[in-house]
Amino acid sequence: QVQLVESGGGLVQAGGSLRLSCAASGRTISNYAMGWFRQAPGKEREFVAAISRGGGYMGTADSVKGRFTISRDNAKNTVFLQMSTLEPEDTAVYYCAATITYSHIAVPTRPNTYTYWGQGTQVTVSS
What is the pLDDT of residue 58? Predict the structure, then answer.
């Protein structure tokens, strides 16, 4: 079992930045691909970014490309999402997710690929 706890969300003005953290416990995440997803009210959960188990490969949604960066520190069992130039459309609950993988390049983008999920952290961007 892997427990994931997100933090770092909050209220920010458009154009601002936030850094989300996802702290994992229970098992080392070095064998897990990690992802960030978000869900706005009335919308489906959508992919934001993913990173391979070793951190060498990343995938980012087109809607956030160039603005959001995913990273990980396996020694600290933590994954990060650096968000810059935030827009009101980025307002959502952001979720961290983990899936075990034997691939060193896998960066899964579909929610149903992931086994473990955090409780989410709210990000609100005001215009």
Answer: 97
